[in-house]
Amino acid sequence: MWNKVFYENTLRRDWPTLRLVRPAYERRLPVVLSRDEVRRVLAEVQLAVYRVCLTTIYSCGLRLTEGARLQVADVDSERMLLHIHGKGKRERYVALPEPTLNKLRALWKTHRSPKWLFPSWCSKRAAPITGRSLQRAFGDALQRSDITKKAHVHTLRHAYATHLMEVGVNLRLIQETLGHRHPRTTAIYTHLTQPVWETMTKPLHELAKDL
Fold first, then answer.
1. What pLDDT is attached to residue 175?
2. What does pLDDT average to over the chain?
3. In the predicted model, what is the mean pLDDT of residues 159-181?
4. Which of 55, 91, 143, 183 is the most buried (most CB within 10 A)?
5. 49 near 113, Cβ under 8 Å?
6. pTM > 0.85
7. At residue 7, does pLDDT exceed 70?
8. What 3-state class would DSSP assign to 178?
9. Which residue has the higher pLDDT, 66 or 29?
């Protein structure tokens, strides 16, 4: 590091070494659960506060922190929207399915927190559930469901985008809902949808049947 400062600031010369040792870019496709697998995992979540939070994360395409820190004031039941305080202080609205709204209402009646939709039962002060506890609840449920995929809470967001694409929702609309800055970030899900694979399955069967 000090050699780099000496070369660039003192000698006013380039320090080319770092350009030669940059690691190769690795593009990994995300793990995606099927709709049935999502249902199986959520059904195994023991505590209602975690189950409803994870259901909301899936059905609204949220990041872990966005879901865990949802507030009562973020629910717009008249327009069926959730107000999301996203990454980098970027706000957005996402569609709120009616079954999810009903689950949120039923859960709220059990704790009646004036601020948090998913309050922490262990906290001595008013606070939302933690991301760590939510990840643990998901991991335990995944294990009980006997699904062997290496999934985590963010996998529900991947599943949401993929499943919407499979039923024909516009890519641009999915991008806005997820809060992605660039279309190419959302476009990765086109490689994961069932219809995409089905377009190749039949030709492959024809190629392989006489081998």
1. 85
2. 83
3. 85
4. 55
5. no
6. no
7. no
8. helix
9. 66
How many residues can be counted in the chain?
211
Question: Which residues are identified as catalytic?
Answer: 63, 87, 154, 157, 180, 189
Kind plus residue range of the DSSP H or E element containing 13: none
Q: How far is CA 125 from CA 9, 42, 135, 137, in A?
A: 51, 28, 22, 22
What domains appear along the chain, each with residue ranges and CATH number?
35-194 (1.10.443.10)
Please list the residues that pair with 71 across neighbouring strands. 116
Give a three-class secondary structure readout of the chain. CHHHHHHHHHCCCCCCHHHHCCCCCCCCCCCCCCHHHHHHHHHCCCCHHHHHHHHHHHHHCCCHHHHHCCEHHHEECCCCEEEEECHHHCEEEEECCHHHHHHHHHHHHHHCCCCECCECCCCCCCCECCHHHHHHHHHHHHHHCCCCCCCCHHHHHHHHHHHHHHCCCCHHHHHHHHCCCCHHHHHHHHHCCHHHHHHHHHHHHHHHCCC
Per-residue model confidence (pLDDT) at position 11: 56
How much is the pLDDT for 63?
94
First to last CA, the chain: 59
